[in-house]
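Homework-ish question, so no full write-ups if that breaks the rules, but can someone show me the predicted structure for this set?
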Amino acid sequence: MPTVSMTVNGQAVTGEVEGRTLLVQFLREQLSLTGTHVGCDTSQCGACVVHVDGESVKSCSMLALQADGAEVTTIEGLASNGSLHPMQEAFREHHGLQCGFCTPGMVMSAVDLLKKNPNPDEGEIREWLEGNICRCTGYHNIVKAIQSAAASMRG
Amino acid sequence: MYDFNHHRPGSVAEAASALAGASDGKLLAGGMTLIATLKQRLASPSDLIDLGAIAELKGIKEDGGALVIGAMTTHATVANDATVKAKIPALAALAEGIGDAQVRNCGTIGGSIANNDPAADYPAAVVGLGATVHTDKRQIAADDFFTGMFETALDEGEIITAVSFPIPEKAGYAKFANPASRYAIVGVMAASGPAGTRVAVTGAGPSVFRIGDAEAALGSGFSADAVSGVTVGADGLNADMHASADYRAHLVSVMLRRAVESAS
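A: Not a homework solution, just the prediction itself:
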C-alpha cells in the first residue's frame, strides 16, 4: 500500500493508505482526529472542512495522497495551550451552534475567511458560508460569532 | 469508490508516460467532479494520475496581449489574481462565482474544461473570449475544443497544460445560478476585442454555443440596447428539474443583456 506523509496540527505523521483513501478517512480513522465530520460526503455540506497548506478544503473530496507533503490543520489544531481559538470562543459566546455537527467545518471555514478578509461585512460572511450547511441555527448566530471573532482578532 | 493505482508525477512528461502505461488511466486535476464520480462508481479507472504536484501547470502570466493560465490553477487563484482582475475582470468574476470557497480552492480551469460539463462556467469564458487551449501536443482554438456534452477535442492521453485568453477591450459575464450547486442554469459571456465580438452561452444547451445574432448586433455597437431583441429558440436546449427549455431560452436573452451591461 502507498505511504502518505504530512504534517497534521504541527506534527509529522505517516501512514499506509489505499489510493482511494480520502483525507477525512485518514484523519478520522488512522489519526483518530474525529473532530472533522463527514456530513454529506458529496462536498456540499462543509462539515469536513480542514486547511491544507493554509487553504480551506473539503476533506471528503480529497484523497489522502493528494495531501502528501502538505501542512494540514484540523479543528483539533486551533486551540493552543488549553485556550480556545478566538473563533471557537466567539462561537461559544454567541451561541453559534446548536447540535454542533457542522461546527468544526464552520469554524475552519470562518478562520480561512478572516485570513483573506479580516473585516468582512455580513454579506461577505454569508456568501463565504455558501459551502457550509447548518440545519439548526438559521445562521444568524454563526454570522454574529464570525463578526465578533473578526473584531477581537483585529484587536 | 473502487481502488486504483495512484501516481503523483512531478512533470507533464512523467504524467503523460504514466497515463500511457496505464491500462485505463485517468488524470486527476482538482478532483471536484472526478472524486465524486469515483465515489458513485460511475468511473473505476485502473490508475489515477494526480497532476497536483506539477509546478509547471500552475500560475498566471501575461504574455503578448494574452493572459496564460496554467491548467492546474485553481478558481480561487484566478478569482483573486491582481492581473486577471485588472485585465479581464469578467474572468475573475466568473471564477469567483463557481461553487463555493472550498470548491474554488481545489477546482482547476484545466479540469473544468476537460470535463466540459454543460453547466460549467469556464466553457463560456474560453469560447466567449476566443481563448486557445494548450496541450502537451498542440494548441486548440476554443471553437474547436468543446465538441458536445462532456466531450472535447482532446485525444486519449492528451494533457491540457494552459489556456491563453486574449485580453479583450470589453467583456462581461452573467449567470443565473442553480441556488444549490451554483452551476450555471444559463451563463453568458459577451466580449469584444482582438478575438472579435463574441457571445458564448453555457448551461442552456448540451455544450457551450455562440449566438451569431447577438455578435452581429454587438458588432455595430456594444450596448445592452443593441441586443434587446435577440432571442434564441428553445429547440435542443436542456430541460430538467431545474428549468425547462423555454425558460432557459428566456434566460439566455436576460443573461445576455446583463452580461453586456456589466462589461468592462
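Now go work out the reasoning yourself. Hint: The longest helix of chain A spans residues 140-154.
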